[in-house]
């Protein structure tokens, strides 16, 4: 059974992941409204990933026989001044989530909760990828601020492949 301090913090992280999901949907809707379909698609996919992360955490708690909490969350930011602002917000969000994930792994270790520490390892690896990807996108949209179609072209070239599912990813609650 996981350590109760870890369970409490993981339930908080579920809220953080759902909040990230909503923020990414809001960014995607902004880009859709600006007729930037590649940027919109990128953020819709990111939103689904964040939802998936929350559901992985829910499943872990269920598998451990402890209560999973599905929390309410605050409304996301929905208006942006330019194409850079939602990406900068997303990068800041990913950096914050990285700190939260690392703290969760540390908390599990502190309580000799090795199963929970192991569970968090996948998220640590995922956050390295997320921060790197969003950092790259921020650099691109900053350069393309005056011509957003350059960012669209970059996404078409660099992010066009459908990523395969990661066989090492934890199972999601409700997943088949």
Q: Would you write up a description of this structure?
A:
It is elongated and about 55 Å long. Helix 1 (4-33) packs antiparallel against helix 2 (37-63) and helix 2 crosses helix 5. The protein is mostly helical. The chain has one domain (4-68, 78-158): Ferritin, core subunit, four-helix bundle (Ferritin, Up-down Bundle). The longest helix is centred in the N-terminal third of the chain and has 30 residues, at 4-33. It has 5 helices and no strands. The protein has helices at residues 4-33, 37-63, 84-110, 114-143, 148-158.
What's a concise summary of this model?
With 176 residues, this protein is an all-alpha fold. It is built from 5 helices and no strands.
What labels describe this entry?
single chain, about 180 residues, mainly alpha, 5 helices, about 70% helix, elongated
Record the SSE blueprint:
Elements: H1 4-33, H2 37-63, H3 84-110, H4 114-143, H5 148-158
Structural class estimated from helices and strands: mainly alpha
Number of helices: 5
| Number of strand elements | 0
- Tell me roughly what share of residues is in helical segments: over 70%
Q: For the CA atoms, what is the radius of gyration? A: 17 Å
Shape: elongated
Tell me the strand percentage band.
under 5%
Number of domains: 1
Taking the sheet with the most strands, its summary is: none
CATH level-3 fold name: Ferritin
Poorly predicted runs are none
First-last Cα distance: 25 Å
CATH superfamily: Ferritin, core subunit, four-helix bundle
| H-E string | HHHHH
Quaternary state of this entry equals single chain
CATH A-level architecture: Up-down Bundle
If you average the pLDDT, what whole number results? Answer: 94
Highest-level CATH class: Mainly Alpha
């Amino acid at each position: 059974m996981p350590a109760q301090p870890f369970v409490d913090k993981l339930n908080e992280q579920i809220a953080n992941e759902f909040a990230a999901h909503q923020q990414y949907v809001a960014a995607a809707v902004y880009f859709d409204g600006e007729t930037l379909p590649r940027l919109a698609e990128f953020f819709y996919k990111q939103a689904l990933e964040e939802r998936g992360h929350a559901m992985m955490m829910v499943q872990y708690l269920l598998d451990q026989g402890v209560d999973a909490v599905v929390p309410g969350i605050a409304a996301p930011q929905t208006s942006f001044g330019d194409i850079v602002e939602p990406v900068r917000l997303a990068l800041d969000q990913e950096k914050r989530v990285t700190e939260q994930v690392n703290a969760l792994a540390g908390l599990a270790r502190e309580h000799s909760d090795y199963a929970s520490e192991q569970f968090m390892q996948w998220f640590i690896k995922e956050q390295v990828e997320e921060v790197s990807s969003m950092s790259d996108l921020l650099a691109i949209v900053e350069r393309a601020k005056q011509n957003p179609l350059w960012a669209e072209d970059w996404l078409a070239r660099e992010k066009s492949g459908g990523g395969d599912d990661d066989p090492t990813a934890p199972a999601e609650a409700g997943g088949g």
